[in-house]
Write a structure and sequence with these properties.
Layout lengths: L2 H23 L2 H20 L3 H13 L4
Helix pairs in contact: 1-2
Length: 67
């Protein structure tokens, strides 16, 4: 397991905690931030890249001219 996969799994565990804390405190921003971190962790685990690199590639693909 490379370091990106393990970091991705760690991010997912931390995001679960953050989402649950947001639900307990009725703080929607914490819940949304936890969900964002969960998606980031899944991307990092799946693709094996750091979050900023994945975001950069995604944004480049979105800004590419359509066919």
């Amino acid at each position: 397991m490379n370091r990106y996969v393990s970091r991705g799994k760690l991010k997912q565990m931390k995001s679960d905690s953050k989402k649950e804390w947001g639900k307990l405190t009725d703080d929607d921003l914490d819940v949304m931030d936890g969900e964002r971190q969960m998606m980031s962790g899944k991307r990092e685990e799946h693709f094996g890249h750091e979050e900023d690199k994945v975001d950069r590639v995604y944004n480049d693909l979105r800004s590419a001219p359509g066919d």
